[in-house]
Amino acid sequence: MPSEARSEFGNTAPDPPTGKLRAAISNAIVQLYSEHYGKGPTKCRTFTLGDLIVTVLEDTFTTVERTLADQGRADSVRDVRMTFQVATADRFRKTVEELTGRSVRSFVSAVDVENEIAYEVFLLAPSTDGNRAGDSLDT
């Protein structure tokens, strides 16, 4: 029997299998990185908190990006990553929407060049079944 999650709004909703969901999101984001950058990260972990999903990816840089970063050109790496992210944002959104069954209200991508860590952050819209935005993906 699934456990119930109580949101900050007092609604209850059955918890989805969040461990499996987080793993599926991580795997899908790694696949997108591999397809679009030609290289996937060596580490990836997804966290959920209410309607917030954060995927943290480590060791994501291509050889060119690593060379630029080593030469003090972090700004160039950030610019290329952000330009590319704008071009691929729909794929990232669609992937999370398909896995969660919820619309993505907001999507932000960031990169920490010095530590070679990327972040993909998704804020889900309220569910369409009448539950309010606080209904949690967490167990």
Describe this structure in words.
- With 139 residues, the protein is α+β, with helices and mostly antiparallel strands.
- Helix content is 40%, strand content 27%.
- It contains 3 helices and 6 strands, in the order ββαββααββ.
- The strands form 2 sheets. The chain has a 4-stranded antiparallel β-sheet. The chain has a two-stranded antiparallel ribbon with strand order 1-2.
- It is elongated and about 50 Å long.
- The protein starts with a strand and ends in a 15-residue tail after the last strand.
- Residues 1-15 and 131-135 have low confidence and may be disordered.
Condensed summary:
With 139 residues, the protein is of the alpha+beta class.
Helix/strand layout:
Blueprint: E1 4-6, E2 12-14, H1 18-37, E3 43-49, E4 52-58, H2 63-70, H3 74-100, E5 104-112, E6 117-124
Antiparallel strand pairs: 1-2, 3-4, 4-6, 5-6
Helix pairs in contact: 1-3, 2-3
- How would the global form be characterised? elongated
The beta-strand count equals 6
Helical fraction: 25-40%
Strand content: 25-35%
Structural class: alpha+beta
Count of runs of 4 or more consecutive helical residues: 3
Beginning-to-end CA distance, first to last residue: 13 Å
Query: Which strand order do you get reading across the main beta sheet?
Result: 3-4-6-5
| Low-confidence spans | 1-15, 131-135
The description of the largest β-sheet is:
4 strands, antiparallel
- What is the alpha-carbon Rg in Å? 17 Å
How would you state the average pLDDT, rounded? 84
The secondary-structure element order is EEHEEHHEE
Key descriptive features of the protein:
alpha+beta, 4-stranded antiparallel beta sheet, 3 helices, disordered N terminus
